[in-house]
Amino acid sequence: MTQSTAQSIEDLTQTALGELALLDNSDALEQWRVRYLGRRGGLTSILRGLSQLDIDQRREVGALGNRAKSTLEEELEKRSQEVSQARLAQVADLERIDVTLPGRPVATGRLHPTTQVVREITDAFVAMGFSIVEGPEVEWDHYNFEMLNIPQGHPARDMWNTLWVDYVNEEGQRPMLLRTHTSPMQARVMESMQPPVRLVVPGKVYRYEATDATHEWHFHQVEGLAVDEGITFADLKGTLYEFARQIFGARRQVRFRCDYFPFVEPGVDMSIDCFSCEGTDSSCRICRGSGWIEILGAGMVHPYVLRAVGYDSEKYTGFAFGLGPERIAMLKYGIDDIRHFYSNDLRFLRQF
Ligand code: PHE
Fold first, then answer.
1. pTM of the model
2. Of 179, 198, 207, 302, which one is the catalytic site residue?
3. Whose CA is nearest to atom 2 of ligand 1?
4. How far is the CA of 112 from the centre of ligand 1 (A)?
5. What whole-number distance in Å separates Cα of residue 349 and Cα of residue 324?
6. CA distance 198 to 191
7. pLDDT, position 320
8. Is 297 in the pocket of ligand 1 (CB under 6 A)?
9. CA 336, CA 352: separation in Å to the nearest integer?
10. Where are the beta strands (DSSP E) in the chain?
11. Which of 191, 206, 240, 319 is 20 to 30 Å from the Cα of 166, by its Cα?
């Protein structure tokens, strides 16, 4: 009896230790503990059976059992530590950064050159106290033409090659179009607010156009409008001169010449002196030898337009201007074909 109990303690210890060495997670370790050292565990049952032995044997085998118990407990503790350390090492391994690996390039997008130039232009005007508004690209004839002193049948309509929307109203007219310029926003804004008005309108415009190096059927404009009591042509000149210097450099000179737009009077176009040859090269590609580069149209808001929106044209005056960001970008960066802007060629776009 003594012998066989002693033997089963020894066997159980060996089996338990053999199993323990293979365990690699805390759940399994806990199950192992319950199996051998728990209240109904293997070793516990053997020790409970000791009561049937006589006193000497009990002492002998009891001591054996207690030693086995502490061995198992110690080994369990050791194994638990090993397992948790291995787990930590595993986590550290996953998180380790190899600083000698070459970096992975991250492909980033960028702003379209037109967006960049539009922002540069509007920033220059915002710095002078203008706010930014935007308007609809599908527009009514009413705002694109009528309100701007360009009635039905007026020859000035030929200045804009219009893309009409295929919608016919009850009177048999096509009153809707893709806006040919941002000027309709002049009328929309003034209709909705009283002076003082000082804002710029960046946006897309559309023309029925055969494309070539200097013509696109779709491009951008930035419209400007300032209306208040006592605004004069000197304000127009000062504002646009400052703008030209902001965009093309402090040394720029500007020139105004008479031009015709039905919604301004007087109307002008503004040129800057050629920043490429400064008027010294008769074969200059940028100014074509003239020394001047036209960059925008402008003028004093026509009293007709002021009255059409309900302003008192005796009390208020104002100036308006319209410029083309693509044209400005072409000048600034020496781009020779406007079609590059919207043909989505990454070799072009990545240069900005
Ligand atoms: N809207 C005009 C155009 O597209 C430009 C312009 C705007 C001229 C404002 C004068 C005043 O050609």
1. 0.71
2. 207
3. 322
4. 24
5. 19
6. 14
7. 98
8. yes
9. 15
10. 131-132, 138-140, 163-164, 176-178, 197-206, 218-229, 254-259, 264-273, 292-301, 316-323
11. 191
Ligand 1 contact, 183 CB (< 6 A): yes
Q: Which residue is associated with the tokens 């997008």?
A: 109
**Residue 311 C-alpha to ligand 1 middle, in angstroms?**
20
Beta-strand relationship, 197-206 and 254-259 = unpaired
* Helix (H/G/I), strand (E/B), else coil: 186: helix
Q: Encoding tokens for residue 313?
A: 């044209």
220 assigned to active site? no
Q: Are 206 and 180 in contact (CB under 8 A)?
A: yes
Q: Report the C-alpha gap between 10 and 15 in whole angstroms.
A: 9
Mean pLDDT for back-to-back runs of 10 residues, the chain (352 residues):
77 88 88 88 82 81 86 90 88 84 89 96 97 98 97 91 95 95 98 97 96 91 98 97 92 94 97 87 86 93 98 98 94 89 94 92
149 lines ligand 1 (CB under 6 A): no
Beta bridge partners of 297: 269, 322
Q: Which two tokens stand for residue 230?
A: 């006592």
Longest dimension (CA), the chain: 129
Burial class from Cβ neighbours inside 10 Å (0-12, 13-18, 19+) for residue 65 reads buried
Asked whether 181 lines ligand 1 (CB < 6 A), one says: yes
Res 225: pLDDT: 98
Would strands 197-206 and 131-132 be described as parallel, antiparallel, or unpaired? Answer: parallel
Cα 113 from chain centroid? 14
Q: How many CB atoms lie within 10 A of CB 292?
A: 17
Q: How far apart are CA 348 and CA 113, in angstroms?
A: 10
